[in-house]
Amino acid sequence: MRIDLVTIFPRLCDGPLAEGIVRRAIDRGIVDVRAHDLRDYTTDRHRSVDDVSYGGGPGMVFKPEPLFRAVDAIRGEGEVDAVILTSPQGRTFTQREAERLAALRHIVVLCGRYEGIDDRVRSALATEELSIGDYVLSGGELPALVIVDAVVRLLPGAVGDEESVDVDSFSRGLLDFPHFTRPAEYRGWRVPDVLLSGNHAEIRRWRMREALARTLALRPDLLPAAELDSEEREILRALMQERGAEHGRD
Ligand code: 9D3
Fold it and tell me: Domain limits at 8?
């Protein structure tokens, strides 16, 4: 897969691309990620990427030309499947969106800054608009890196077996079960006995129940879309009955 980022702060992208799973995927040739400096696509002496807003008002607006020229140049290097504009107005990026993008061959991510971007970039250049959530950031670089991270770890070979992707909470729509390592007792807090028992059937069922209990307690909104098998549905039914009974008592 190839991912091109277009930004006025390419160095902001270098750190996150140089570590961990993303770094390894790049080293293994699974993905090619390039951070382009938007200013390299300007044509004026001052390398201007922004200008005053038509209609007046404070704040600068990203000019269309450098962004269109950047995407033209990237398209010249091979077919582009999606041009994503990171923007607070976008659809919220979710695991489902990550899965969709991971199936593409080549994506371009445009990182916004300033008060806004000339709207022709959104309407005529971008093929989609994505936000990473409802909070105000100062630009689209961190969102672009979030998207890169979530997408790259889904690419075949990017994650080692020990970090198995398909048992991940969000891919099945549940929160993870609790994890423990040695020591078996720390400052008086003991690791649940079942995990030390060596009874793998019991451990599996305990983990299933814990994941379901946590999801029910902390993120019940995830349950309707979660992919549960019949055993899980049965455990969930029992958990919901227990909770119902607890609430009934007070
Ligand atoms: C005065 C500007 N804002 C009114 C609320 C609009 C605005 C424009 C650009 C606010 C923030 C930004 C910079 N953020 C992004 O470009 C961005 C973003 C975000 O802020 N939150 C979550 N996802 C994203 S994706 C891009």
Answer: 2-152
Same-domain status, 141 and 240: no
Q: Which of 51, 65, 129, 168 is catalytic?
A: 168
CB atoms within 10 A of CB 99: 14
Residue owning the nearest CA to atom 2 of ligand 1:
115
Q: ω before 183 within 30° of 0 (cis)? A: yes
Structure tokens at 183: 């020591």
- Residue 225, in any domain of the structure: yes
Query: Rounded to whole angstroms, how far apart are CA atoms 22 and 144?
Result: 13
Are 89 and 194 contained in the same domain? no
CATH number assigned to the domain comprising residue 230: 1.10.1270.20
Residue 192 appears among annotated catalytic residues: no
* pLDDT of 170 higher than 60: no
Element (H, E) at 7: strand 2-7
Q: The whole model's pTM is what?
A: 0.95
> Is 88 annotated in the active site?
yes
Q: How many CB atoms lie within 10 A of CB 110?
A: 27
pLDDT digits (tens, 9 = 90+) for 13-40: 999 999 999 999 999 999 999 999 999 9
CATH number at residue 24: 3.40.1280.10
2, 113, 122, 153: the active-site residue: 153
Q: Which residues contact 21 (CB under 8 A, 6 or more apart)?
A: 149, 152, 153, 158, 159, 163
Report the domain count for the chain: 2
| Residue located via tokens 């250049």 | 125
